[in-house]
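Subject: Sanity check before I submit

Could someone independently write out the structure tokens for this chain? I want to compare against mine line by line before I put it in a report. The sequence has 177 residues.
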Amino acid sequence: MQKAIDTFYKLLELLLIVLLAGMAVMVFLNVVLRYGFNSGINVSDEMSRYFFVWLTFIGAVVTFRENSHVGVETLVSLFGRKGRIICMILSNIVVIAVSAIFFWGTWKQSPINASMAAPVTGISMLWVYGIGYFTGAGVVLIALERLVRLLTGRVTEEEIAAFAGENMTLEQLAERT
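---
Independent answer below. Compare away.
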């Protein structure tokens, strides 16, 4: 099962690369066409914006899985093992609540988005903003899995140290500054 999950996240990372590359190519091509030939591709402006939205929200799920979101390690590192576990439990509960609200908001907004079409491509705006379903559900599932492991005592010392920011290499610390 873990291999299937890892493969799924590798495919998401590949999708992020494709979205970023597609966005860069569309924008670059449009800049060259506009300044060099006084023309452009209308679809590329719209699609690059949508790619950026999808890139952001898919990337949020991948980043959450890798524990790479911004944390308050300075505060958490002051606590002992029990305090850190309590912080991890509270953090996951808050993340679940906020992500569930985000999913629910996407659900409530869907009829409006489904009734609207993009100005140039004509695609339903649900294709653009429906990514909230994926992000909300994905983050809730990851946080629920973490919460279950915390409450059943199956969390490792390495995960607790990562939550407190103690197991970072110099390269990882340099990336954060």
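---
OP: Matches mine. For the report I'm noting this point. Residues 111 and 126 are 8 Å apart (CA to CA).
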